[in-house]
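Re: that chain you flagged

S.,

Sorry for the slow reply, it's been a week of failed gels. I finally had a moment to sit down with the sequence you sent. For the record, here it is as I used it:
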Amino acid sequence: MDLRQDIWQQSSGQQSLKDGEIHIWRANLNQESLSVQQFLKTLSADEKQKADKYYFDKDRNHFIVARGTLRKILSGYLGIAPNEICFAYNLFGKPILDVKNNQFRFNVSHSQGLALFAITREREVGIDLEFIRSDFAVLKTAQSFFSEPEISALKNLPTELQTAAFFSIWTRKEAFIKAVGEGFSYPSTKFTVSIMPKNSHDLFRTREFQKVRDWSLMILSCQADYTAALAIEGKIQTVSYWL
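Prediction finished late last night. Pasting the structure tokens below so you have them in one place:
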């Protein structure tokens, strides 16, 4: 799906999310110092500790803005202040809302100053965003992280198409792994996605306990020089885009 500029809606603050809906949010992480400090005030103590571990100020600021923006977005659904939101983490480090009777699921990805956030209800979701590097060693990297069918299909493409195809595969695989929530313990070489997606049924094979048709994948073309993908349990129904 082409995420044209004219389909992005400006949020007024409070948000409602119906069953079956998916909300995609976009944010610029390159913010002025004052904005960074305002976001920092909303973070928890452990988030501030994570921010302090970044060596470069730019990376630290991007983390602060991304996490602060996530809190701001979620506050619109929950009706509470951003600094009142509490997170818990599963065994693999995936964050979840630590609230009673939590129905919301979310995921975040950012690359080169741009961030995307996926929000839905009662369905696991994953999102991945990557800046497309023309000088990236796509075939060498694919050998380590792609399945044999994906590697073979990538090699059979004309050279000028391999970079775009690589990042299309990579983002869908990462989005699926993030949705499953098992981190690096889920082997990326053990499942296969289509090399040239045409619809939501682009997941060909997963590990035995995962049913392929229980999941949908979707390409998100957010802006030039980036590629992104969404993975979600069940069918993709209504998707809307917010700023």
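What I noticed first: The radius of gyration is 18 Å.

Talk soon,
D.
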